Description:
The chain contains 16 helices and no strands. The protein has helices at 2-10, 13-44, 47-74, 77-100, 106-134, 140-169, 177-198, 215-228, 230-245, 248-259, 265-288, 295-315, 319-347, 353-362, 367-380, 383-404. The longest helix is centred in the first third of the chain and has 32 residues, at 13-44. The chain is globular.
Amino acid sequence: MASSDIVSAIRIRNFTWLWIGSLGSSFAMNMQIIARGWYVYDLTSSAVDLAWVTVSFMLPTVLFSLYGGVIADRFSKKKIIVYAQAMNFIATAIMAVIIITERVSFWDFMWVGLFNGTVLALSMPARQAFVPDLIPERLIFTAMGLTTSGWNISRIVGPAFAGFLIAIIAEGDKTSSFGVGIVYFIIAALYLISALTMLLIDNPGSPAGTEKSGAVSEMKEGLLYVLERPPVFGLIILSVIPFLFGMSLNTLLPAFNQDMLAGQADDLGLLISMMGVGAIVGSLMMAAMGDIENKGRWLIASCLCWGLATSLFGLTTSQLMAMCVIVAFGWLMSWNMSMNRGLLQLQVDGHMRGRIMSIDMMSHGLMPLGVFPISIIADYYDVGTALFVSGIAFMIATIGAFLFMPAVRQTDVFDKNNKREVGVTSVTDSEVV
């Protein structure tokens, strides 16, 4: 049944094109992150400047995600994604020309970061909310698992591919304007391919025919929708807690590798790769276990195990131990996130889906609120202690939410009389490859 569900999802032509398009844009984004980081640091020799460029990309997630949800519920999701990838293509191609002609400055990376981050914030809710329009309800969890698998594959392979291109084109010189410029042209091409792929989908992802009010009113409606529906609110809480306490390992991994394991750059690369392997296993596991019962309880259990893996990693003293634990960490992280996304898709009414997915996306922007105090602990004590505390805080927060927030215990409760509008009936034989 598990393997047949994966095959069934892939055989749905519209979903397959969406998955391929998402994979292309994910590859472009991850390649751009690594190429940008290399060049900015070599251009400015300043870690602070590198951090500012990263902030320029993340800040729009907090500022514009809610409005992106409103857009997703107002307009054709297909058109939103096509226009977004086309704009990313144009901006990245312009940046490639600026780099390859050696006219680039630090501020060019800032405006491109703000632009790409804004486009992502305004279009990602539509991409996430598009999935249920293309696939039957019984395959939602399989689709979420496959989508997360694509992201994890691009996160591992994308940076390595960018490095391979630099090695071939510029003989490993990360300061080469020509080499990095060519990489940016390839990234632009991936954005263009992603946009063109979306044109092959014959479902426009049209919004529900509900009366529209002002953008602010619709954002308020989305927030009230979450607060008035305990299962949805519970899932949002179980998305916020991991981003507050479960992502510290991702941020502090370079410091842990150097300070606690005395590792070199290749050791760090191996740890990151092993985390990615675990993440791929976790997302594929979710794709294969779409029919598992009591998903809400499994979601709580995976949060607790994720926190435990974080603490155990902080206690590791050898590269081998660290690799074993980080595989489990990546697996639990990916499985948890895929399951949460799937449950949220099932709980939400179709006309509200874009706004609710945008609220969930905003939880990503809360990550620094949890990482910052953990980083202070790392400065005063050591990175291992900080990660141990982070994992304990994760587990305590999860248990506290389960005990004192009834909504967290209702994530498996479905309102049968108010089911969201899924695209179940729209998936016909003509859409199956």
